[in-house]
UniProtKB/TrEMBL annotation, chain B:
Subcellular location(s) of the protein: Cell membrane
Domain of life: Bacteria
Coiled-coil regions, chain positions: none
UniProt xrefs under InterPro entries: MetI-like, MetI-like_sf
Protein name per Swiss-Prot or TrEMBL: Carbohydrate ABC transporter permease
Domain ABC transmembrane type-1 intervals: 77-275
Family: Belongs to the binding-protein-dependent transport system permease family.
TrEMBL record, chain C:
Protein name as annotated: Sugar ABC transporter permease
Keywords (A to Z) from UniProt: Cell membrane, Membrane, Transmembrane, Transmembrane helix, Transport
Pfam families from the UniProt entry: BPD_transp_1
Record keyword Membrane present: yes
TM annotation in the entry: 42-60, 107-128, 149-177, 209-228, 240-258, 299-322
Native species: Pseudotabrizicola alkalilacus
SUPFAM superfamilies associated with the record: MetI-like
Subcellular location: Cell membrane
Membrane association type: Multi-pass membrane protein
Length: 522, 293, 331
């Protein structure tokens, strides 16, 4: 009965739009095939407009017409916003839909895939998904990065495009007022922050300026880069990184860290860093900029560029702009943060799926030019048009009150299916100020390689779980204490290193490197 | 009938000091509510920047417009009433007779039954087994499942049983002589005498139902059945996901902070209104009526 | 009604009932006795059965889940399909010095909460009882229980602002007396006072309701005769009110002791910093950080089982003591 209704609905909709998709090269199946899907992500807990599964995404409608595959919602935990809880409920019932997708699925998929809950994709993709395979071939290392400990990979990820995320920002108008140039290296940066602190650039007669601030306290660690130390190897804070010798190490156990941290402690003691950086939290950027107090930060291009115009009335002349990362003590300019090329989000095929080949062909569709545009920009002719071979949003999309990403989510584009993102999507609605900053960073060679993580086997995982959380806890405790001035990193360093050793640092590094070697070769 | 004459002159300083202390404490506890009310009436940017301290900054009703315009808000509000009223009545239907039976000295295995109740206060099955059990019972995604699944609570039973035990048995003698059954003794003697205790237990049930969200989140699939607290969490999750594209929010009249404050205000007001209604049972003189009969 | 109900204590009847019960017991066989008993008291069992059945179906039946504390639990394989690992999770916990520190912190924080937090709602209820002005009393009562309904995130935000070194009210007031600002929330020695103080302030009003109800149950005739004897308010509070609500206090105390190892996890997460872990990290937050890598239900279950076991021993002890000295007990 339900199938009949669905069939009628398809007939109706196909009749309306057939002329657009006259050719059939994208079809996966000749007769419509229904596949069930779990799709749980922050914006929608369910595969339907805004999570309302009675409404079909325009993108899904178009994909049905193009491929013949019909995705039917069967999301678990539709009322919890916690995706791992939803995934756990789904797995606990054992009654999996054909496709399991959404936010942060890598960990569960790689844990339960080898136990038989999900289908390994290596062979399926090689045989039936030429476009996905081509993507792996063109981007070496990514497929390895998402593999589970058994060497197979179990999901097709959401693959973000674009390079730069965060950048260094400074109050250019304060620099101008004090007759200073943009700082080019760590010493000049120190002098500038010192001047912000002491010479009252906001002109209110009080020394209330906060030279360096951050919304996430962890961004204070970014200053480590100025002394050639690392704060993290990826876009997750406190992550491992691969050093010049190809070894996985942790930044907080390196000699450079000692030097960097003692300088950060000095800057903190001198009032160059927000004294309340650990508790001010998410509101600090809004507060410190709108009160004309904050001087410099390290934060996202997209959102940090947006303050000058709305605050023009309240803070006349405000000009908060990106500047190039100051060169380190050894003369290296680098931007440690970049967008990760691969997300733990995406979709996987469950063991219950009777049509794995059709499903993987369907996954492949979103890596074809047509499917990729559909997944990025929505339905052609509705939200965008092809202009000189470029997908361009219609003016009503760009000029809407609603942000473009929010509009896309309701269309069914940019949702957390496995697809390669197209940076042209974001570029079109990035503000002029942010574009200039991104171009400035692009023009200089600032990017460094990301650590994409490793997949442990059971034994390595056990070691890691046993030692690592406590090690990290200890590192962070010491770190914060040193910055706050209780304890001195120079004096405590040897004791610190020997404590790390006693707590199993060497073992963790060993399993990290054995897993890394197995996964990426070398 | 209270009670000017109860106060001797020597008590005056004591009474005055007491009033002052209570007043100070009360003012301090009023602050968070004033704070969220002001937050809900402030502009989105000021609220995000942490500029709201006591009174609204950049007064606007946009957050309320955003919340009240949502059909799901009203549906979830209605559901919260269903779960609260239904759940509380269901709980009392179990707890009152259960606690009464457990309070009776002649009950065989009384110690064992009481231990069995107390045991559940510390040993819990864990989330997944509880969820699977509810599924096996066919109680997922239903109003009835939520209402029955959390009806009994060890703490409330013990509390009420303890109150029942405190009632002197001499009160029931008259009823016993008239040949009243246990049901009649409970209904006619114990319940009228235990109004403050029953009101307390009812209040605890109401409050936990009103505030409860975790299991509703886990057990309900259908969005039309969710209670207000689950809706609140959904809105918060959705708004906080805007974080990275925050510049569009800067000029917006509402923000994640103001909208969640507005929902919180809406969800607190009914519970504020119900308290004075139950409060009358906490005033004195209940037993007096019983004695004079 | 001939006798004063409070002179004839509730237990006298119990003793009489027990005595006559014992007398009856001597007659007839066991089966007959049970039969007689059920015939006479069947209504009590009808009242009890729904509750017991409910407990069995909803709480006891899924308790097989406790065994994951001894298993390498995989959600997909289920409880039965997951392999046994014996005491491995307990060894993981107790072999970790940070767990032992968290355990110590939990006990200390709970102990502070018990010492300072347990008497507060009682005190508050007694103070309310002394207020003459009915409107003032009712309004104040309605207000003090408000913070209970405000989410931890908001409360934590208020606390962080209040203790901020630059703008916080606490440092501002300290400044009037010439004291230098303190960054309280990064100072290990301040974490426990701030946390315990916050939870007392947030919950005392709501928790006082139980005692208000108990006080409401005290017979006014007692106060009336005390007034005739010329007793002061102070004396009446000590001689009448407190003894009358003592059973409630004892029950609440036993339950509180049983919750010794449970510390509000949400609030700690919101208020603590790496710099204050040494005094702030509790068992629940420790487990939370251990599980960053994904659902460690098994480890959490082991910690939970340990908590429950300790709680149960504490409660049994408290219960036995209470039973001996006050005749009030949980079971």
């Amino acid at each position: 009965m339900r199938n009949l209704k669905v069939a009628l609905a398809i007939l109706g909709s196909t009749a309306m739009t057939t002329p657009v998709f006259a050719d059939n090269h994208l079809r996966v199946v000749d007769t419509p095939l229904e596949l069930t899907i779990h799709m749980h992500w922050p914006r929608a807990q369910g595969y339907g407009v805004g999570g309302d599964t009675s409404k079909i995404y325009p993108v899904e409608q178009a994909a049905r017409e193009m491929t013949g595959i019909h995705l039917i919602d069967r999301t678990s935990g539709r009322n919890t916003t916690n995706n791992s809880e939803a995934m756990n409920l789904l797995l606990a019932t054992g009654n999996l839909p054909d496709i399991v997708g959404g936010n942060a699925i890598q960990q569960p998929v790689n844990q339960y895939g080898p136990e038989g809950a999900f289908v390994p994709l290596n062979d399926l993709v090689r045989e039936h998904a030429p476009n996905i395979q081509a993507f792996w071939d063109n981007n070496p290392g990514l497929m390895e990065a998402i593999s589970a400990a058994d060497g197979n990979y179990y999901y097709i990820p959401y693959l973000p495009d674009g390079k730069f995320g965060r950048a260094w920002y400074i109050r250019q108008d304060w620099l101008d007022k004090l007759g200073l140039e943009q700082p080019q290296n760590v010493d000049e940066y120190y002098e500038v922050l010192k001047a912000f602190r002491e010479q009252d650039p906001n002109g209110n007669g009080r020394k209330d300026e906060i030279p360096y601030f951050a919304r996430q306290w962890e961004e204070v660690l970014r200053l480590l880069n100025l002394w050639d130390a690392r704060s993290s190897g990826s876009d997750t804070y406190h992550d491992f990184y691969v050093n010049d010798d190809g070894q996985v190490v942790h930044p907080y156990a390196q000699e450079a860290y000692r030097v960097g941290l003692s300088n950060i402690a000095k800057w903190y003691a001198e009032g160059l860093i927000d004294p309340e950086i650990f508790t001010r939290g998410a509101s600090s950027r809004d507060y410190l900029l709108s009160e004309n107090l904050g001087g410099s930060t390290h934060d996202w291009f997209a959102s940090t560029s947006g303050y000058n115009i709305p605050l023009a009335e309240k803070v006349p002349g405000m000009n908060f702009i990106p500047f190039l990362p100051p060169a380190s003590a050894n003369g290296v300019r680098m931007e440690e943060h970049r967008r990760i090329p691969i997300k733990p989000d995406g979709w996987a095929i469950s063991y219950a799926n009777q049509h794995p080949v059709e499903t993987v062909k369907y996954f492949d569709f979103f890596f074809t030019p047509e499917g990729r545009n559909l997944a990025n920009f929505g339905v052609e002719g509705k939200t965008w048009d092809m202009v000189d071979g470029e997908p361009v949003y219609k003016p009503e999309v760009l000029n809407s009150d609603q942000a473009v990403n929010s509009q896309m989510y309701l269309e069914g584009a940019q949702i957390f299916r496995g697809f390669p993102q197209d940076y042209r999507y974001e570029w079109q609605w990035t503000s002029e100020a942010a574009r200039e900053g991104i171009e400035l960073y692009e023009a200089n060679d600032l990017l460094i390689d990301q650590f994409l993580g490793v997949a442990f086997n059971a034994e390595e995982q056990a070691f890691y779980d046993k030692f690592w959380p406590s090690l990290l806890t200890y590192m962070l405790e010491r770190q914060q204490a040193w910055i706050l001035g209780s304890g001195n990193v120079e004096a405590d360093w040897d004791a610190y290193l020997s404590t790390l050793d006693r707590m199993g640092y060497a073992q963790v590094i060993e399993v990290m490197n054995s897993a890394h070697k197995r996964q990426y070769g070398g | 009938m209270t009670n000017m004459n109860l106060y001797s002159r020597g008590d005056r300083a004591f009474v005055f000091l007491n009033m002052v202390l209570i007043a100070l404490f009360t003012i301090s506890t009023l602050y968070p509510f004033i704070y969220i009310a002001s937050l809900s009436l402030s502009s989105g940017f000021e609220a995000r920047a942490g500029n709201v301290i006591l009174t609204p900054v950049g007064f606007t009703l946009e957050a309320y417009k955003r919340v009240l315009a949502e059909p799901l808000f009203w549906a979830s509000y209605k559901n919260t009433f269903i779960y609260t009223i239904g759940g509380t009545l269901m709980s009392l239907a179990f707890i009152i007779p259960g606690a009464y039976a457990l309070s009776r000295p002649q009950l065989y295995g009384r110690r064992f039954w009481n231990l069995m109740v107390a045991f559940t206060m510390w040993f819990h099955a864990g989330m997944i087994p509880f969820f699977l059990n509810m599924r096996d019972l066919g109680l997922l995604d239903s109003y009835f499942g939520i209402i029955i699944g959390f009806a009994v609570n060890g703490f409330n039973i013990i509390l009420l049983r303890n109150f029942f035990e405190g009632i002197p048995q001499s009160f029931e003698e008259a009823a016993r002589m008239d040949g009243a059954s246990e049901f009649q003794v409970l209904w006619k003697v114990y319940m009228p005498l235990s109004k403050p205790a029953i009101a307390t237990v009812a209040l605890f049930c109401i409050v936990s139902r009103w505030n409860g969200f975790f299991w509703a989140m886990v057990l309900l699939q259908d969005e039309s059945k969710i209670p207000l607290q689950v809706y609140l969490r959904k809105v918060i999750a959705e708004l906080s996901d805007d974080e990275e594209f925050a510049n569009s929010l800067m000029t917006a009249a509402y923000s994640f902070e103001t909208v969640s404050a507005a929902i919180m205000v809406c969800s607190i007001i009914p519970i504020l209104l119900i308290y004075p209604f139950l409060q009358k049972y906490f005033s004195k003189g209940i037993l007096l009526g019983g004695v004079k009969e | 009604m001939s006798s004063d109900p409070n002179v004839t204590g509730p237990r006298t009847e119990t003793l009489v009932a027990d005595a006559s019960e014992a007398l009856r017991r001597r007659k007839g066989s066991r089966v007959q006795r049970v039969g007689d008993h059920l015939k006479r008291e069947w209504q009590l069992y009808v009242m009890l059965i729904p509750t017991i059945l409910w407990l069995l179906i909803f709480l006891y039946k899924p308790m097989y889940g406790l065994q994951i504390a001894f298993k390498d639990y995989s959600i997909f394989r289920g409880v039965a399909g997951s392999p046994w690992v014996g005491l491995e999770h307990f060894q993981t916990l107790f072999g970790n010095e940070q767990f032992l520190r968290a355990l110590k912190n939990t006990v200390i924080i709970s102990f502070y909460s018990l010492i300072f937090g347990f008497p507060m709602p009682i005190l508050l209820a007694l103070m309310f009882n002394e207020i003459l002005h009915q409107t003032f009393k009712k309004t104040a009562q309605t207000i003090v229980y408000l913070p209970h309904f405000i989410s931890s995130v908001i409360i934590a935000g208020i606390v962080i602002t209040a203790f901020s070194p630059s703008a916080g009210i606490v440092n501002t007031v300290m400044g009037w007396f010439g004291v230098d600002p303190v960054y309280f929330l990064t100072r290990p020695e301040w974490f426990r006072p701030i946390f315990v103080g916050t939870s007392i302030w947030q919950e005392a009003g709501f928790q006082s309701i139980v005692y208000l109800a108990a006080i409401a149950g005290v017979s006014p005739t007692l106060y009336e005769s005390a007034v005739v004897d010329g007793a002061s308010r102070w004396q009446m509070m000590w001689k009448i009110t407190i003894p009358s609500i003592l059973p409630t206090i004892i029950i609440m105390l036993i339950i509180r002791i049983g919750n010794m190892l449970e510390v509000s996890f949400e609030m700690i997460i919101l208020l603590y910093q790496p710099a204050t872990y040494q005094t702030a990290d509790v068992v629940n937050t420790f487990i939370y950080r251990q599980g960053i890598q994904g659902g460690q239900y098994d480890l959490a279950a082991a910690a939970g089982l340990f908590n429950a076991g300790v709680a149960f021993v504490l409660v049994m002890t408290a219960n036995t003591i209470a039973k001996r000295y006050s005749r009030t007990s949980l079971w």
